Amino acid sequence: MPSGPQWDQALRDVALWIIEAGTSSADGVAPIVQAGHPALRAVATPYDGQLSDAELTALLEVMHRTMRAAPGVGLAAPQLGLPVALAVLEDPGSISEEHAQVREREPLPYRVLVNPRYTPVGDDRVGFYEGCLSVVGYQAVVARARHVHLTGTDERGAAVDEIVGGWSARIVQHETDHLAGTLYLDRAELRSLAATDEFGARWAAEPRPVAAARALAFELD
Fold it and tell me: Active site: which residues (predicted)?
């Protein structure tokens, strides 16, 4: 990956542009780039103080507002065109008790991940439909580790070292993958790919995509 003072300055320039875009827009959000943008396929540069504390705070605020407005449950800096290893996560949980139980989806309070990494814990994998704010209009089933070991730091530099499970583990994997230049489609069961139209909404509304697997003829972990 690129490195050096000139690259760090280039990253800072992009970050400042995002902050300006997010603070000057009527809704307080920045544009989310779509599949095909080079930042989504780059290995993100580790965050190592390229921004001042005030600039980092402003950037994270724009990312948080943009994620909420989309709406989404996670947003990585490359999704705003900034290939730096930063991500924000927040999930209010499911309003359906059945979905919450089957998907192990508990509320995830807002948090920031800096230079995160994950490794699967155990062999359990579960497949559910996922979408992405950078791949608008489509969704597909992705089999992911049920539990992961997450490491990195938060925005204040405090160490993150924990086991994350259920739907929160899925969000961690999805957003951390963005920092490695990986989209969820790279890991998806492509026969499950569905537009977010009438059929797609039906498939995604299942607690588990059992009917979708049967109708579209794909294996479901």
Answer: 175
Overall residue count recorded for the chain in this entry? 221
99 annotated to a ligand binding site: no
Q: Is 97 a catalytic residue?
A: no
Q: How much is the pTM?
A: 0.96
- 64 labeled binding residue: no
Active-site option among 175, 189, 206, 219: 175
Model pLDDT for residues 51-66, shown as the tens digit of each residue: 999 999 999 999 999 9
Q: What does the pLDDT look like over 86-102, one tens digit per residue?
A: 999 999 998 889 999 99
Give the single-character DSSP code of 131.
-
Please give the biggest Cα pair distance in the chain.
Answer: 54
Pinpoint the alpha helices (H) of the chain. Answer: 5-24, 53-69, 97-103, 166-178, 198-205, 210-216
- The distance of Cα 193 from the centroid of its chain, to the nearest Å, equals 18
Residue spans per domain, the chain: 5-216
Q: Is 26 exposed, middle or buried (0-12, 13-18, 19+ CB in 10 A)?
A: exposed
Chain centroid, CA 145 distance in Å: 15
Question: What CATH number labels 5-216?
Answer: 3.90.45.10
